[in-house]
Amino acid sequence: MKTLNLEDNKLIELQTAHKLSYKNKDTIQSSTKCGCFYCLELYDTNILTPADFVAESDGSFTVFCPKCGIDAVIGNQYPSLSITFLKEMNDYYFHY
Ligand SMILES: [Zn+2]
Q1: In the chain, what are the domain boundaries?
Q2: Rounded distance between C-alpha atoms, residue 31 and residue 25, angstroms
Q3: CA of 58 to the centre of ligand 1 (A)
Q4: Distance 72 CA to ligand 1 centre (A)
Q5: Which helix (H) or strand (E) holds 8?
Q6: Which of 5, 57, 66, 81 is surrounded by the most beta carbons within 10 Å?
């Protein structure tokens, strides 16, 4: 990964949000909208089906994006969720 000159606060924000893309069934289900930082789509959580929740080895579930199939979904329980924020996540986590 190349070194990015991100402000420390921004980096912490991205890393905090990234944790919410994993084992996130509960936070997604308590959100009304969610967004994927791989395909940069925002959509209502009510389009998710049981098949979009994939079991982890410890019995918790991770949401996989119904649009692109990647586990990069964050709910709008996360206050900064927006297309702009998803693009920042995408740049940091997928464009290295
Ligand atoms: Zn996606």
Answers
A1: 23-94
A2: 10
A3: 24
A4: 7
A5: helix 8-19
A6: 81
